[in-house]
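User: I'm curious whether this sequence folds into something compact or stays loose and floppy. Could you predict its structure so I can see for myself?
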Amino acid sequence: MELHVVIEGTRGLADQIHSQLREAIRAGRLASGQQLPPSRLLAEQLGVSRKTVAQAYAKLTFDRLIVTQVGAGTFVAARLPQRSRPFAQDDLAGSAVARQWQGVETPLRHPVPEARLRHEFIAGAASQRLFPEAEWRQCALHGLRRSAAQRGFYAEPEGLIELREAVSRHIGFSRGVNCRHDDLVITSGAQQALDLIARVLIVPGCVVAMEEPGYPLARMLLEAQQARVVPVAVDAEGIRVDQIPDGTRLIYTTPTHQFPLGMPMSLPRRHALLARARELGAIIVEDDYDSEFRYEGSALEPLQTLDQWGLVAYIGTFSKSLSPELRLGYAIAPPALRSALVNAKHLCDWHTPTMLQWSLARFMADGHLLRHIRRCHDVFSERRERLLSRLTGDLSPWLEPLPAVAGYHMAVLLRQPQMQALQLCQLARRVEVGLYPLDDCYRQPASRPGLLVGFGAIEADDIDPALDRVRSVLEQLTG
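Assistant: Here's the prediction. I'll summarize afterward.
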Protein backbone atom coordinates (compact mmCIF):
# COMPACT_ATOMS: atom_id res chain seq x y z
CA MET A 1 0.00 0.00 0.00
CA GLU A 2 1.42 3.37 -1.01
CA LEU A 3 1.62 6.41 1.27
CA HIS A 4 -0.88 9.02 0.06
CA VAL A 5 1.14 12.03 -1.14
CA VAL A 6 0.14 14.16 -4.14
CA ILE A 7 2.86 15.83 -6.21
CA GLU A 8 1.93 18.82 -8.34
CA GLY A 9 4.36 20.19 -10.89
CA THR A 10 8.15 20.02 -10.62
CA ARG A 11 8.95 22.86 -8.19
CA GLY A 12 9.33 22.71 -4.42
CA LEU A 13 9.00 18.94 -4.31
CA ALA A 14 10.59 18.53 -0.88
CA ASP A 15 8.34 21.25 0.56
CA GLN A 16 5.25 19.57 -0.95
CA ILE A 17 6.14 16.24 0.62
CA HIS A 18 7.01 17.87 3.95
CA SER A 19 3.80 19.90 4.20
CA GLN A 20 1.53 16.97 3.29
CA LEU A 21 3.17 14.59 5.76
CA ARG A 22 3.16 17.26 8.47
CA GLU A 23 -0.58 17.84 8.00
CA ALA A 24 -1.29 14.09 7.95
CA ILE A 25 0.56 13.63 11.25
CA ARG A 26 -1.05 16.61 12.96
CA ALA A 27 -4.52 15.60 11.75
CA GLY A 28 -4.01 12.06 13.07
CA ARG A 29 -4.16 10.31 9.69
CA LEU A 30 -0.65 9.07 10.40
CA ALA A 31 -0.79 7.69 13.92
CA SER A 32 1.86 7.86 16.60
CA GLY A 33 4.37 5.05 16.12
CA GLN A 34 3.35 4.34 12.53
CA GLN A 35 6.28 3.47 10.28
CA LEU A 36 6.95 5.60 7.19
CA PRO A 37 8.31 4.12 3.96
CA PRO A 38 12.10 4.20 3.52
CA SER A 39 13.22 7.26 1.56
CA ARG A 40 14.29 5.15 -1.41
CA LEU A 41 10.91 3.39 -1.64
CA LEU A 42 8.88 6.58 -1.24
CA ALA A 43 11.01 8.28 -3.89
CA GLU A 44 10.27 5.45 -6.32
CA GLN A 45 6.56 5.65 -5.58
CA LEU A 46 6.43 9.42 -6.10
CA GLY A 47 8.80 9.51 -9.07
CA VAL A 48 11.25 11.93 -7.40
CA SER A 49 14.84 11.67 -6.31
CA ARG A 50 15.80 10.05 -3.03
CA LYS A 51 17.49 13.32 -2.02
CA THR A 52 14.13 15.12 -2.27
CA VAL A 53 12.46 12.68 0.13
CA ALA A 54 15.46 12.80 2.47
CA GLN A 55 15.15 16.60 2.65
CA ALA A 56 11.44 16.32 3.53
CA TYR A 57 12.20 13.72 6.21
CA ALA A 58 14.94 15.96 7.62
CA LYS A 59 12.50 18.84 8.00
CA LEU A 60 9.97 16.58 9.74
CA THR A 61 12.70 15.38 12.10
CA PHE A 62 13.58 19.01 12.88
CA ASP A 63 9.87 19.63 13.57
CA ARG A 64 9.98 16.65 15.99
CA LEU A 65 7.20 14.95 14.04
CA ILE A 66 9.18 11.86 13.08
CA VAL A 67 12.06 9.92 14.62
CA THR A 68 14.59 7.60 13.03
CA GLN A 69 15.64 4.41 14.75
CA VAL A 70 18.89 2.95 13.47
CA GLY A 71 18.32 -0.41 11.88
CA ALA A 72 14.52 -0.18 12.32
CA GLY A 73 13.29 2.70 10.17
CA THR A 74 11.48 6.02 10.37
CA PHE A 75 8.43 6.42 12.59
CA VAL A 76 5.85 9.04 13.49
CA ALA A 77 6.79 10.62 16.84
CA ALA A 78 4.61 10.60 19.94
CA ARG A 79 1.18 12.01 19.21
CA LEU A 80 0.80 15.76 19.49
CA PRO A 81 -2.45 17.21 20.83
CA GLN A 82 -4.96 16.98 17.98
CA ARG A 83 -6.45 20.14 16.70
CA SER A 84 -10.10 20.36 17.55
CA ARG A 85 -12.39 20.20 14.58
CA PRO A 86 -14.93 22.95 14.07
CA PHE A 87 -18.40 22.22 15.36
CA ALA A 88 -21.04 21.41 12.79
CA GLN A 89 -22.88 24.52 11.66
CA ASP A 90 -26.64 24.73 11.90
CA ASP A 91 -26.90 25.65 8.24
CA LEU A 92 -25.18 22.48 7.06
CA ALA A 93 -27.41 20.07 5.13
CA GLY A 94 -28.93 17.45 7.42
CA SER A 95 -27.90 19.14 10.68
CA ALA A 96 -31.47 19.12 12.03
CA VAL A 97 -31.86 15.41 11.35
CA ALA A 98 -28.46 14.71 12.89
CA ARG A 99 -29.47 16.57 16.06
CA GLN A 100 -32.56 14.40 16.33
CA TRP A 101 -30.47 11.23 16.17
CA GLN A 102 -27.99 12.64 18.67
CA GLY A 103 -30.86 13.06 21.11
CA VAL A 104 -32.15 9.50 20.74
CA GLU A 105 -31.95 7.55 23.99
CA THR A 106 -30.64 3.97 23.92
CA PRO A 107 -32.31 2.08 26.79
CA LEU A 108 -31.48 -1.51 27.73
CA ARG A 109 -27.93 -1.07 26.44
CA HIS A 110 -25.66 -3.63 28.08
CA PRO A 111 -22.68 -2.25 30.02
CA VAL A 112 -19.19 -2.67 28.61
CA PRO A 113 -17.11 -5.33 30.44
CA GLU A 114 -15.21 -2.85 32.60
CA ALA A 115 -18.49 -1.25 33.77
CA ARG A 116 -20.27 -4.47 34.72
CA LEU A 117 -21.07 -4.97 38.38
CA ARG A 118 -20.34 -8.02 40.48
CA HIS A 119 -24.01 -9.05 40.50
CA GLU A 120 -25.89 -8.22 37.27
CA PHE A 121 -29.67 -8.64 37.04
CA ILE A 122 -29.73 -7.25 33.51
CA ALA A 123 -32.31 -8.62 31.08
CA GLY A 124 -31.41 -10.24 27.78
CA ALA A 125 -27.97 -11.52 28.80
CA ALA A 126 -26.85 -15.04 29.65
CA SER A 127 -23.83 -16.38 31.52
CA GLN A 128 -20.73 -16.71 29.38
CA ARG A 129 -20.05 -20.17 30.77
CA LEU A 130 -23.29 -21.46 29.20
CA PHE A 131 -22.10 -20.85 25.65
CA PRO A 132 -21.19 -24.18 23.97
CA GLU A 133 -17.62 -23.27 23.04
CA ALA A 134 -16.41 -26.68 21.83
CA GLU A 135 -19.45 -27.44 19.68
CA TRP A 136 -19.53 -23.95 18.18
CA ARG A 137 -15.81 -24.09 17.39
CA GLN A 138 -16.32 -27.23 15.31
CA CYS A 139 -19.24 -25.67 13.46
CA ALA A 140 -17.32 -22.41 12.92
CA LEU A 141 -14.53 -24.36 11.23
CA HIS A 142 -17.15 -25.94 9.00
CA GLY A 143 -18.45 -22.43 8.24
CA LEU A 144 -14.97 -21.25 7.30
CA ARG A 145 -14.50 -24.18 4.93
CA ARG A 146 -17.86 -23.63 3.23
CA SER A 147 -17.26 -19.89 2.95
CA ALA A 148 -13.82 -20.49 1.42
CA ALA A 149 -15.37 -22.61 -1.32
CA GLN A 150 -17.57 -19.68 -2.41
CA ARG A 151 -15.35 -16.75 -1.50
CA GLY A 152 -15.46 -13.69 -3.71
CA PHE A 153 -19.20 -13.65 -4.38
CA TYR A 154 -22.08 -12.08 -2.49
CA ALA A 155 -24.74 -14.47 -1.19
CA GLU A 156 -28.50 -14.28 -1.61
CA PRO A 157 -30.13 -11.58 0.58
CA GLU A 158 -32.72 -13.94 2.08
CA GLY A 159 -30.00 -16.15 3.55
CA LEU A 160 -28.46 -19.53 2.83
CA ILE A 161 -31.03 -22.19 2.01
CA GLU A 162 -29.30 -24.60 4.41
CA LEU A 163 -29.87 -22.23 7.34
CA ARG A 164 -33.42 -21.34 6.31
CA GLU A 165 -34.29 -25.04 6.15
CA ALA A 166 -32.74 -25.62 9.58
CA VAL A 167 -34.59 -22.65 11.08
CA SER A 168 -37.94 -23.70 9.60
CA ARG A 169 -37.55 -27.20 11.06
CA HIS A 170 -36.49 -25.82 14.45
CA ILE A 171 -39.32 -23.31 14.92
CA GLY A 172 -41.84 -25.81 13.59
CA PHE A 173 -40.68 -28.31 16.21
CA SER A 174 -40.11 -26.00 19.18
CA ARG A 175 -42.60 -23.16 18.60
CA GLY A 176 -45.32 -24.64 16.40
CA VAL A 177 -44.69 -22.15 13.60
CA ASN A 178 -46.06 -23.15 10.21
CA CYS A 179 -43.55 -22.17 7.52
CA ARG A 180 -41.21 -23.37 4.80
CA HIS A 181 -37.70 -22.19 4.07
CA ASP A 182 -39.05 -20.06 1.20
CA ASP A 183 -40.99 -17.98 3.74
CA LEU A 184 -37.88 -17.04 5.75
CA VAL A 185 -35.45 -14.14 5.52
CA ILE A 186 -32.28 -14.39 7.63
CA THR A 187 -31.46 -11.09 9.33
CA SER A 188 -28.83 -9.56 11.58
CA GLY A 189 -30.88 -10.06 14.72
CA ALA A 190 -34.58 -9.47 15.38
CA GLN A 191 -33.94 -5.73 15.49
CA GLN A 192 -33.02 -5.71 11.80
CA ALA A 193 -36.02 -7.90 11.01
CA LEU A 194 -38.30 -5.26 12.56
CA ASP A 195 -36.39 -2.49 10.79
CA LEU A 196 -36.89 -4.14 7.39
CA ILE A 197 -40.61 -4.63 8.03
CA ALA A 198 -40.92 -1.00 9.04
CA ARG A 199 -39.06 0.15 5.92
CA VAL A 200 -41.46 -1.59 3.56
CA LEU A 201 -44.68 -0.73 5.43
CA ILE A 202 -44.38 2.62 7.18
CA VAL A 203 -44.95 6.00 5.61
CA PRO A 204 -44.43 9.19 7.64
CA GLY A 205 -47.31 9.78 10.02
CA CYS A 206 -48.95 6.38 9.75
CA VAL A 207 -50.36 4.88 12.94
CA VAL A 208 -48.58 1.99 14.65
CA ALA A 209 -50.19 0.35 17.70
CA MET A 210 -47.83 -1.01 20.33
CA GLU A 211 -48.18 -2.61 23.74
CA GLU A 212 -47.86 -0.32 26.76
CA PRO A 213 -45.50 -1.06 28.40
CA GLY A 214 -43.47 -2.55 25.58
CA TYR A 215 -40.05 -3.09 24.09
CA PRO A 216 -38.51 0.41 23.99
CA LEU A 217 -36.07 -0.26 21.14
CA ALA A 218 -38.95 -1.35 18.93
CA ARG A 219 -40.87 1.81 19.77
CA MET A 220 -37.87 4.03 19.05
CA LEU A 221 -37.11 2.24 15.79
CA LEU A 222 -40.68 2.72 14.59
CA GLU A 223 -40.63 6.37 15.60
CA ALA A 224 -37.34 6.81 13.76
CA GLN A 225 -39.21 5.66 10.64
CA GLN A 226 -41.58 8.61 11.35
CA ALA A 227 -44.49 6.45 12.43
CA ARG A 228 -47.00 7.76 14.99
CA VAL A 229 -46.73 5.12 17.69
CA VAL A 230 -49.90 4.81 19.77
CA PRO A 231 -49.49 3.01 23.14
CA VAL A 232 -52.16 0.38 23.80
CA ALA A 233 -52.63 -0.94 27.33
CA VAL A 234 -52.16 -4.58 28.26
CA ASP A 235 -54.03 -6.60 30.84
CA ALA A 236 -53.75 -10.17 32.14
CA GLU A 237 -54.68 -11.52 28.67
CA GLY A 238 -52.35 -9.33 26.62
CA ILE A 239 -52.88 -6.27 24.44
CA ARG A 240 -56.29 -4.58 24.76
CA VAL A 241 -57.62 -5.14 21.25
CA ASP A 242 -60.57 -2.82 21.86
CA GLN A 243 -58.13 0.08 22.30
CA ILE A 244 -56.36 -0.34 18.94
CA PRO A 245 -57.35 2.83 17.06
CA ASP A 246 -58.91 3.04 13.62
CA GLY A 247 -56.42 3.71 10.85
CA THR A 248 -53.73 1.55 12.41
CA ARG A 249 -51.30 0.25 9.78
CA LEU A 250 -49.02 -1.92 11.95
CA ILE A 251 -49.47 -3.68 15.32
CA TYR A 252 -46.39 -4.71 17.30
CA THR A 253 -46.87 -7.35 19.99
CA THR A 254 -45.00 -9.97 22.05
CA PRO A 255 -47.79 -12.51 22.63
CA THR A 256 -45.82 -15.50 23.93
CA HIS A 257 -43.93 -13.62 26.67
CA GLN A 258 -45.12 -10.03 26.88
CA PHE A 259 -42.19 -7.67 27.19
CA PRO A 260 -41.62 -6.62 29.90
CA LEU A 261 -44.49 -7.78 32.15
CA GLY A 262 -44.32 -11.45 31.18
CA MET A 263 -47.91 -12.61 30.71
CA PRO A 264 -48.80 -14.69 27.63
CA MET A 265 -51.62 -13.55 25.39
CA SER A 266 -54.70 -15.74 25.85
CA LEU A 267 -56.08 -17.72 22.92
CA PRO A 268 -59.36 -15.71 22.74
CA ARG A 269 -57.33 -12.50 22.71
CA ARG A 270 -55.17 -13.85 19.88
CA HIS A 271 -58.22 -14.56 17.77
CA ALA A 272 -59.63 -11.12 18.60
CA LEU A 273 -56.35 -9.46 17.58
CA LEU A 274 -56.31 -11.28 14.25
CA ALA A 275 -59.92 -10.28 13.62
CA ARG A 276 -59.15 -6.63 14.43
CA ALA A 277 -56.12 -6.64 12.15
CA ARG A 278 -58.19 -8.07 9.31
CA GLU A 279 -60.82 -5.39 9.88
CA LEU A 280 -58.14 -2.68 9.72
CA GLY A 281 -56.08 -4.26 6.95
CA ALA A 282 -53.11 -4.00 9.31
CA ILE A 283 -50.01 -6.17 9.60
CA ILE A 284 -49.21 -7.74 12.98
CA VAL A 285 -45.56 -8.05 13.97
CA GLU A 286 -45.27 -11.06 16.28
CA ASP A 287 -41.98 -10.80 18.16
CA ASP A 288 -41.25 -14.23 19.64
CA TYR A 289 -37.90 -13.53 21.23
CA ASP A 290 -37.41 -16.17 23.97
CA SER A 291 -40.26 -18.69 24.04
CA GLU A 292 -37.89 -21.70 24.02
CA PHE A 293 -37.53 -21.32 27.78
CA ARG A 294 -40.96 -22.21 29.22
CA TYR A 295 -41.44 -23.16 32.87
CA GLU A 296 -45.19 -23.32 33.45
CA GLY A 297 -48.40 -23.95 31.52
CA SER A 298 -48.86 -25.23 27.99
CA ALA A 299 -47.77 -23.46 24.84
CA LEU A 300 -50.36 -21.63 22.74
CA GLU A 301 -50.49 -21.48 18.97
CA PRO A 302 -48.48 -18.55 17.58
CA LEU A 303 -50.42 -15.81 15.84
CA GLN A 304 -48.54 -16.79 12.68
CA THR A 305 -50.00 -20.29 12.79
CA LEU A 306 -53.52 -19.06 13.60
CA ASP A 307 -53.37 -16.49 10.79
CA GLN A 308 -55.56 -17.44 7.82
CA TRP A 309 -55.32 -14.17 5.90
CA GLY A 310 -51.58 -13.43 5.58
CA LEU A 311 -51.54 -10.70 8.24
CA VAL A 312 -48.71 -11.78 10.57
CA ALA A 313 -45.02 -11.05 10.19
CA TYR A 314 -43.22 -13.35 12.63
CA ILE A 315 -39.73 -12.45 13.85
CA GLY A 316 -37.33 -14.42 16.03
CA THR A 317 -33.73 -14.34 17.18
CA PHE A 318 -30.89 -16.55 18.33
CA SER A 319 -29.65 -13.82 20.69
CA LYS A 320 -31.54 -15.31 23.64
CA SER A 321 -31.19 -19.02 22.83
CA LEU A 322 -27.51 -18.90 21.82
CA SER A 323 -25.68 -15.55 21.99
CA PRO A 324 -26.47 -11.89 21.24
CA GLU A 325 -22.97 -11.43 19.83
CA LEU A 326 -23.82 -13.56 16.78
CA ARG A 327 -26.47 -11.04 15.60
CA LEU A 328 -28.55 -13.71 13.88
CA GLY A 329 -32.32 -13.56 13.56
CA TYR A 330 -35.05 -14.17 11.03
CA ALA A 331 -38.37 -12.93 9.72
CA ILE A 332 -41.31 -14.82 8.26
CA ALA A 333 -43.06 -12.29 6.09
CA PRO A 334 -46.64 -12.55 4.86
CA PRO A 335 -46.68 -13.63 1.20
CA ALA A 336 -47.58 -10.13 0.05
CA LEU A 337 -44.47 -8.65 1.70
CA ARG A 338 -41.77 -11.25 1.18
CA SER A 339 -40.23 -9.95 -2.05
CA ALA A 340 -40.27 -6.39 -0.67
CA LEU A 341 -38.54 -7.60 2.48
CA VAL A 342 -35.84 -9.39 0.48
CA ASN A 343 -35.23 -6.27 -1.61
CA ALA A 344 -34.99 -4.13 1.53
CA LYS A 345 -32.49 -6.59 3.03
CA HIS A 346 -30.46 -6.45 -0.18
CA LEU A 347 -30.29 -2.65 -0.08
CA CYS A 348 -29.65 -2.51 3.66
CA ASP A 349 -26.61 -4.79 3.99
CA TRP A 350 -26.87 -7.24 1.05
CA HIS A 351 -26.84 -10.30 3.33
CA THR A 352 -25.98 -11.51 6.83
CA PRO A 353 -22.39 -12.85 7.08
CA THR A 354 -22.35 -16.23 5.37
CA MET A 355 -19.67 -17.77 7.57
CA LEU A 356 -21.96 -17.35 10.59
CA GLN A 357 -24.89 -18.70 8.60
CA TRP A 358 -22.97 -21.85 7.63
CA SER A 359 -21.83 -22.29 11.24
CA LEU A 360 -25.34 -21.97 12.68
CA ALA A 361 -26.81 -24.27 10.02
CA ARG A 362 -24.36 -27.02 11.00
CA PHE A 363 -24.88 -26.28 14.71
CA MET A 364 -28.62 -26.81 14.32
CA ALA A 365 -28.36 -29.78 11.93
CA ASP A 366 -26.11 -31.63 14.39
CA GLY A 367 -28.65 -31.16 17.19
CA HIS A 368 -26.41 -28.87 19.25
CA LEU A 369 -28.97 -26.08 19.53
CA LEU A 370 -31.72 -28.25 21.04
CA ARG A 371 -29.27 -29.79 23.52
CA HIS A 372 -27.99 -26.34 24.43
CA ILE A 373 -31.53 -25.03 25.00
CA ARG A 374 -32.39 -27.98 27.23
CA ARG A 375 -29.24 -27.45 29.26
CA CYS A 376 -29.90 -23.72 29.63
CA HIS A 377 -33.54 -24.37 30.51
CA ASP A 378 -32.49 -26.37 33.58
CA VAL A 379 -30.04 -23.66 34.63
CA PHE A 380 -32.50 -20.81 34.18
CA SER A 381 -35.25 -22.75 35.92
CA GLU A 382 -33.08 -23.15 39.03
CA ARG A 383 -32.22 -19.44 39.04
CA ARG A 384 -35.85 -18.48 38.54
CA GLU A 385 -36.98 -20.63 41.48
CA ARG A 386 -34.30 -19.21 43.74
CA LEU A 387 -35.19 -15.66 42.76
CA LEU A 388 -38.91 -16.22 43.26
CA SER A 389 -38.38 -17.83 46.65
CA ARG A 390 -36.73 -14.64 47.89
CA LEU A 391 -39.14 -12.25 46.18
CA THR A 392 -42.13 -14.06 47.69
CA GLY A 393 -40.31 -14.58 50.99
CA ASP A 394 -38.26 -12.09 52.97
CA LEU A 395 -38.35 -9.45 50.18
CA SER A 396 -42.13 -9.56 49.78
CA PRO A 397 -42.80 -6.49 52.01
CA TRP A 398 -41.08 -4.38 49.34
CA LEU A 399 -41.23 -6.30 46.05
CA GLU A 400 -43.99 -8.07 44.10
CA PRO A 401 -42.96 -10.34 41.20
CA LEU A 402 -45.31 -10.64 38.25
CA PRO A 403 -45.87 -14.18 36.97
CA ALA A 404 -43.59 -14.96 34.02
CA VAL A 405 -43.87 -18.42 32.49
CA ALA A 406 -41.10 -18.08 29.91
CA GLY A 407 -37.76 -16.43 29.17
CA TYR A 408 -35.15 -15.36 31.68
CA HIS A 409 -36.39 -12.05 32.97
CA MET A 410 -39.36 -10.97 35.06
CA ALA A 411 -41.01 -7.73 36.09
CA VAL A 412 -41.01 -6.86 39.79
CA LEU A 413 -43.26 -4.09 41.12
CA LEU A 414 -42.47 -1.94 44.16
CA ARG A 415 -45.12 -2.34 46.85
CA GLN A 416 -44.49 0.83 48.86
CA PRO A 417 -45.62 4.00 47.07
CA GLN A 418 -42.87 6.20 48.46
CA MET A 419 -40.16 4.09 46.86
CA GLN A 420 -38.66 5.15 43.54
CA ALA A 421 -37.24 2.55 41.19
CA LEU A 422 -34.45 4.79 39.88
CA GLN A 423 -33.29 5.64 43.39
CA LEU A 424 -33.30 1.96 44.34
CA CYS A 425 -31.22 1.11 41.26
CA GLN A 426 -28.72 3.86 42.01
CA LEU A 427 -28.26 2.73 45.60
CA ALA A 428 -27.96 -0.91 44.53
CA ARG A 429 -25.12 0.00 42.18
CA ARG A 430 -23.16 1.29 45.15
CA VAL A 431 -23.14 -2.23 46.56
CA GLU A 432 -22.22 -3.82 43.21
CA VAL A 433 -25.74 -5.00 42.28
CA GLY A 434 -27.12 -4.13 38.84
CA LEU A 435 -30.86 -3.41 38.99
CA TYR A 436 -32.79 -1.73 36.16
CA PRO A 437 -36.07 0.25 36.27
CA LEU A 438 -39.16 -0.54 34.21
CA ASP A 439 -39.60 3.13 33.35
CA ASP A 440 -37.85 2.86 29.96
CA CYS A 441 -40.51 0.39 28.79
CA TYR A 442 -43.32 2.93 29.23
CA ARG A 443 -44.21 5.66 26.77
CA GLN A 444 -46.49 7.25 29.38
CA PRO A 445 -45.80 7.51 33.15
CA ALA A 446 -45.99 4.09 34.77
CA SER A 447 -48.90 3.48 37.10
CA ARG A 448 -46.61 1.64 39.51
CA PRO A 449 -42.81 1.75 39.68
CA GLY A 450 -40.97 -1.48 39.12
CA LEU A 451 -37.84 -3.31 38.05
CA LEU A 452 -36.87 -5.39 35.04
CA VAL A 453 -34.98 -8.27 36.65
CA GLY A 454 -32.97 -10.64 34.47
CA PHE A 455 -31.63 -13.92 35.80
CA GLY A 456 -29.71 -15.12 32.75
CA ALA A 457 -26.37 -13.50 33.53
CA ILE A 458 -26.15 -14.09 37.28
CA GLU A 459 -25.07 -17.46 38.66
CA ALA A 460 -27.49 -19.29 40.95
CA ASP A 461 -25.06 -19.18 43.90
CA ASP A 462 -24.76 -15.40 43.54
CA ILE A 463 -28.50 -14.68 43.72
CA ASP A 464 -28.87 -14.91 47.50
CA PRO A 465 -25.77 -12.78 48.30
CA ALA A 466 -26.93 -10.18 45.78
CA LEU A 467 -30.46 -10.08 47.18
CA ASP A 468 -29.08 -9.78 50.70
CA ARG A 469 -27.47 -6.54 49.58
CA VAL A 470 -30.72 -5.44 47.94
CA ARG A 471 -32.58 -6.12 51.17
CA SER A 472 -30.16 -3.89 53.07
CA VAL A 473 -30.78 -1.11 50.56
CA LEU A 474 -34.55 -1.55 50.86
CA GLU A 475 -34.35 -1.36 54.62
CA GLN A 476 -32.41 1.89 54.37
CA LEU A 477 -34.94 3.36 51.95
CA THR A 478 -37.97 2.51 54.07
CA GLY A 479 -36.52 2.68 57.53
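Summary: The chain is about 40% helix and 15% strand. The longest strand covers residues 228-235.
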